[in-house]
Amino acid sequence: MATKGCVTIPTDVGIDKEMQEVIKRWGADAIRDCDGTKLSSDLQNLNLKMYSTYLPTRNDQEWAKSNMDQLQQLYVVSESNIALDTTISIDIMKGFYKEQFKPNTKDDIKSLWEVVDRTTGEKIDSNKWIYDYEKNYVIVNDIIPFHEYTVSFLVYQIWDPTQMYNHLTNNWGDKPHEMPYDGRHPETFEHMKNYLQNWINENPEIDVVRFTTFFYHFTLIYNDQAKEKFVDWFGYSSSLSKECLDEFEKEKGYRLRAEDIIDEGYYNSPFRIPTKEYLDFVDFQSKFVATNAKEFVDIAHNAKKEAMMFLGDNWIGTEPYGKYFESIGLDAVVGSVGNGTTMRMISDIPGVKYTEGRFLPYFFPDVFREGGDPVGEARENWTQARRAILRKPLDRIGYGGYLGLALQFPEFVDEVEKICEEFRTIHNNIQKTKAHTAPFKVAVLNCWGKLRSWQTNQVAHALWYKEIYSYVGVIECLSGMPLDVEFINFEDIRKGIPSDIGVIINAGDAMTSWSGGENWIDEDIITVLRRWVYEGGGFIGVGEPTAYQKQGKLFQLFDVLGVDRDLTYGLSYRKYNELTKEHFITEEIKEGFDFGEGKEGIFKKRDSVEILSIHKGDIALSTNNYGKGRAVYMSGLPYTPENCRLLLRSIYWVKNMENDMKEYYVSNVNTECAAFTEVGKMAVINNSFDNQTTDVYIKGELVETLTLKSGELVWMNIK
Amino acid sequence: MATKGCVTIPTDVGIDKEMQEVIKRWGADAIRDCDGTKLSSDLQNLNLKMYSTYLPTRNDQEWAKSNMDQLQQLYVVSESNIALDTTISIDIMKGFYKEQFKPNTKDDIKSLWEVVDRTTGEKIDSNKWIYDYEKNYVIVNDIIPFHEYTVSFLVYQIWDPTQMYNHLTNNWGDKPHEMPYDGRHPETFEHMKNYLQNWINENPEIDVVRFTTFFYHFTLIYNDQAKEKFVDWFGYSSSLSKECLDEFEKEKGYRLRAEDIIDEGYYNSPFRIPTKEYLDFVDFQSKFVATNAKEFVDIAHNAKKEAMMFLGDNWIGTEPYGKYFESIGLDAVVGSVGNGTTMRMISDIPGVKYTEGRFLPYFFPDVFREGGDPVGEARENWTQARRAILRKPLDRIGYGGYLGLALQFPEFVDEVEKICEEFRTIHNNIQKTKAHTAPFKVAVLNCWGKLRSWQTNQVAHALWYKEIYSYVGVIECLSGMPLDVEFINFEDIRKGIPSDIGVIINAGDAMTSWSGGENWIDEDIITVLRRWVYEGGGFIGVGEPTAYQKQGKLFQLFDVLGVDRDLTYGLSYRKYNELTKEHFITEEIKEGFDFGEGKEGIFKKRDSVEILSIHKGDIALSTNNYGKGRAVYMSGLPYTPENCRLLLRSIYWVKNMENDMKEYYVSNVNTECAAFTEVGKMAVINNSFDNQTTDVYIKGELVETLTLKSGELVWMNIK
């Protein structure tokens, strides 16, 4: 059994001896040297691979100061203003943090800015407004009293959002503000490349250039109280400029409006149904970023160094499931692992040599203090990620923060030692083979499809929001299940559902990108899916699937699901919701159901429906038959062990393959198994922190009853 | 103090002596003689006014049998059917109760029936379908596989819904089914009049003809299990016929489609935003019913009898707040009093000489049995209605059912004696004067306006539904408050808000008639209301007021309300919802708030907002300033004593008249007062069944502290 490798640790200063010890115990083979400081010769002799972070957009603040017109820009929208008269003065910077933004008045504001009547949605003719350059006011004339007006405008980002966040959070006082520059400008881009080349020349000991990241930060806007106003981890608004819009026009053949970015003030949040224009913009920026990032990667490669990308911060334009990502030529991606979903988001990334996950907790004083529970957090984070690792492992794991802090907690050091050992054992045992999965794929259907694989219904990765946890549970369950999962969009449906897909899941709130909105009144989508289920496909709807209120129903696939949601128009219909007591999909779920926030007003619309759970009179869980196909409706699916099992059973049931479920199976919902048939081994895991007894099935036969200790992983031979 | 009058009791047989006793104790002066049986001479000597019920549409079943083509008809829609091929056979009667309906195939089905593609909403050309008269199947050809199809068709009502309901509920076995005929046919109408004339001639002892009611029953459709399928107390679908559609076309200049009545299967439920076509139809039928009902009333009047209408059952076309109602010339309306709202619905009816309320409980064995609580029910019903009676009293009260049953419960007889006495005392004390009200009117704004006064957000009157109780509380609170209340619609707003309106309330779910739907993206509505509030009006929104998702907001008057609801598009915005601890509107509410079902995702949109209650992170109660005006938002308002007070205080606060609230006022939320300044008397009521101590304010001054016993009403002199 290997005792070394696959683990990265952070450096720290003045603890050489302790570091040597922990490197040995954790089997670390790489070290992340945040500040480019040299390692001591003792450590250098350990032959550790050395990573160094590199921030392409702001590591030369002299350049930033000398080229203020080449800073990164955003399109932002002013607060909403109600006209009291036929003229209005709008303080465009009101509500924004003036340390972060400065209006760009250098470029032609008349063609780049927009005043919009938000009562009608109409753009105001630009000769009706003027700009007061002193006060930052837009004065609009000849308008309609008591209509609402906003100004969309470009601002320079005069404080890098990540540095601003760290600066304000950690009270860095008068430490200078760093400004991010935009590689869209050829001069700046050339400078960025030269700077990288110099840095590489000056740091020959580095093995891996860890880019954080390339060009554009996700959208992070502060308010006038220097607090978060708007945060969209997926947002492209911070990548705008006149030059960008000009080039977009050249490439795509039409010009974007400010409104295409502003999007009524929602800035194209991932919950919005993406417009063609926005998708074009994402494509355009991704291509630009990929093309240019490749030049950075090439510089690293030419110096015989690996290029690793951090999945976060300035990651806009490098979405790893986008069509240009692979062309960047990266060796590796590293990202933070908050749970099974974020683990899969990293480990499934195509076209890189390896992936690495940064585990929790970070070695920061918020956890590593008296009363903190670093051991518990590490164990929980590992256990939730482990079930997903068994499906598609990361190649490496690692930790971040101040190592010295962690070393003060010996039990934590012990715990991580066990985790590293278990991680390497998985790799050694499975020998790069893939765990057994069902003989069909499961597809998650929404407006984003593959581009946002493992990112559905997320505001920011692994953060809890009341509005999303009942949906995020779906992918969190899937992340560790013995199934091949794909993410598809409505275009994929229009092209014809691939034959290897057996089950389609649609989960989200009505009129969001996750549910699908107007796609559900597209005859083609409806008829293709109906026929597909009728001929044997399985369909699972969660929350408000297939929802668009039209022609007497909210759920347009009410016939497939067998249920609909009544938005009170149908209150005059008597609802007869009666429970079916026993059903295959709820067989092993002993405890009460948890559908999270759920949905109200769900009622039976077809006689073939069986209702398995009712909440306050409304259906929370039901099944339906549709031709040779089947469907399940759930009002929500937070991540719980019971819900993992409920989803697994639902998937086999809708696919009409109940009898195949126990090919490799463990009965206790707190346990799961992953069978590696090529190497004749099966991992059985206990996801709970209690002892669990579970029946093990192979090829449908009960072969053994195991008892697993808290969080234990047991390997069985299955040859 | 009067000891007799204003009370109606039901007859019963074989209990003459006991009846004389109870007539004396309750002070009854009228008797409702359900079956037209003669009273004993002893009772006749008591000089009681005598009512007799009359059912115009079904009291001659011989006529019904001989004129089966003149029975009442409905437009109904078949169940939904998914085509599996390019042809489909639709069993149109599937899911309907065949004892209730029979398809009308006598009239031209090709012009009267419609096959609709519910996937697209398009009507199928009538030459694409044929009807199998044997099987009741519509066969549609040349259609699109996996589209959804329905058939809208006319049926004869071969069982009167009220009789069917009673028949099935009480297991009347082989008692013949009564069929309702349609006065739209001149022959039938003539017969109905003659029959009434004969009946009147034969029953000279009757003083009051109590019509139940005139022509058309509300929509009541049973399913194939002989259970309720669809019940709409406001529904006009049971008043259709070819003749009616022909006359509509003549009168209104265009022809209605079946779909105008079917309405995607929702049958124009009151929760739907009424179309112009449907409003035209309501107007057309109301005019027809009023014109013809008047002829019935005239027959009664010519015989020196009073004409009284029962508000229910066959009341369609006689909506008492409609523009034709007064022209019927009725002497009186009687209806069932379930609470304050239904009491006001009756007592506010314009253009009749008197109103009468039937109180609960009915003298039926479901309550009048061992373990039943008739005393409690009577007391609760009276107490909830009494606060509304003090604002606008009924002229008479009464009870229904089997009197003999009630007499077996001596405590009930005592309780009703007290109620009758208290009712008469109110009349004697107030001397037909009106209770003091605020110096401004409160308007409830929705799509129905005046026509559905005191009927907002109701499925059937006084029935509890999870979906409505959080809104119905608004009118239930208002029914007993010292305010003049009007019900207005969006047309009224377009015409200009009347100057006597001080506060407007909009309460309902998004996209329903009660909230207003697309009216909220009408620039005129928006600007008129904004200006009106800005200049000093008060606005109160409950649930999803002013809601229509457009241009970055759901609540189109987000600026007035200061809050909006986020349907997840704005999740990336950080919401800073902080509580304000003290506020005028919550001053007297000591207990926890109850917003009923509430709404999620309500957040602060204006800095001027003060948040008074937060539920699961979302705003449940807030206030805002808007120019000289003000607004309050509540996520729901079930009827509770605390919520009555919360609404009262909100109304005075939004009107900027906090200092005027205590003109006549009692401090304890379980108590209310009604000041009759013209007669110098004030009633103070205890709405609870505990003792309550309350401070009494007159003209802003604390004048007395009263202690009231359970449910007590105390009269004070205020001269």
TrEMBL record, chains A, B:
UniProt signal peptide: none
Domain Lacto-N-biose phosphorylase-like N-terminal TIM barrel: 5-437
Chain ranges of the Lacto-N-biose phosphorylase central domain: 441-658
Keyword Glycosyltransferase (UniProt): yes
MF-aspect GO terms: 1,3-beta-galactosyl-N-acetylhexosamine phosphorylase activity; 1,4-alpha-oligoglucan phosphorylase activity
NCBIfam families named in the record: 1,3-beta-galactosyl-N-acetylhexosamine phosphorylase (TIGR02336)
Name of protein: 1,3-beta-galactosyl-N-acetylhexosamine phosphorylase
Species of origin: Romboutsia weinsteinii
